[in-house]
Amino acid sequence: MSDMTEQQPSFLTRLRDSDLWWSFIHSPGAIIASVLTVMIVAGALFAGLVAPHDPFDLATVDLFDALLPPAWEAEGNSSYLLGTDDQGRDVFSTILYGSRISLIVGFASVALAAVIGITVGLIAGYSGGILDSFLMRVADIQLSFPAILIALLIDGVARGILPREAHDEVAVYVLVVAIGLSFWVQYARTVRSSVMVERNKEYVQAGQVIGLPNWIILIRHILPNVLGPVLVIATIQLALAIITEATLSFLGVGVPPTSPSLGTLIRIGNDYLFSGEWWITIFPGVALVVLVLSVNILGDWLRDALNPKLR
Fold this sequence. Notes:
By secondary structure, this protein is mainly α. It has a single domain, classed as MetI-like fold, CATH 1.10.3720.10. It has helices at about 10-15, 20-25, 30-45, 45-50, 90-125, 130-145, 145-160, 165-200, 200-210, 215-220, 225-250, 260-270, 280-305. InterPro entries: BP-dependent_transpt_permease (IPR050366), MetI-like (IPR000515), MetI-like_sf (IPR035906), OppC_N (IPR025966). This is ABC transporter permease. It is found in: Cell membrane.
């Protein structure tokens, strides 16, 4: 008997040898999309270090610098690469800080929707019967309404209940709840279908025979086997959540102009678009398009990479 024990491969080694990594390095679109996504996320996270100006520091904002064009135009200022908005804030800096808020709302709302949807899907798929029918009818009813309409309804109810002076303080939280409650259905339906397949397998029946509680069977044994489709849905819905937040902010029911997201920046710039100050809305719009397109491409790649029929 040998004293030498076989060393287990590291996580990086397993990742490098996996089909997922092979698919990634052979997909130029996924590589470009991931690089753009990482750049935008890193710029948003480290906006305080990357941004040349702090657009929310009133001591550094000068109204005399308002509506300056980009630096390469004749009237531009080299200190403001992409120009300034109506308050004299640097557009490039506001894009970095605005991307942070858009990403926070997107990730938080997707996480909330995933928690609700996975929980409902697990319960409905495992229990079956009347409870399953009731939960799925609720999901069908919500699917008959557009997500943006549900988000507007929830946001309007929250604004009606909360005092006016608290609207700006809780605007981000209201957006997260509104978008999260709009997107849980896809998770619930997908998880339910997977659970209905898994619950008839031998490992689940073995757990039931030895007396394991249902919640342990669901969390420890069934849940890990249904997370693949959930990851794909979450990636795609991240882009949808960012778009929904931008739409709500553009309509004036999102985050306040004092801490704007990309949607708020586009709405502010839209008021000046026809007077010639095109850069205030165009550059935030381009940033939003690049971010959403990159996340969508990653979601499409991940869906194909995890589909065994395409291997």
